[in-house]
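Lab notebook, bench 4. Still working through the backlog of constructs that have no structural model yet. Next entry is a single chain of 77 residues. Request: give me the structure tokens for it.
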Amino acid sequence: MLGVPGSGRNAGLATLDGMDYVSALVPPVVMAVFFVGLVVTIIKSQGGPNKAKEDAAVDAALARAESAKQAPRSEGV
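Model written out:
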């Protein structure tokens, strides 16, 4: 079928030429690099000199939440 649009070998398929590959791959590569950097930063920031303060703050918050949950209510039922 000659002259009919969409009847060629690549009919219905999206094709990328030259620089289109680069422009299609740049956003996922940038996001992957950012994500790896974020994970590395999170891992490196664990522990260190402020670990005791951070752990104490979390423990205090958990203790407040537990005591508030276990405290008897003084409502007139």
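Notes after review: Residues 18-45 form one domain. The mean pLDDT is 80. Flag for follow-up if needed.
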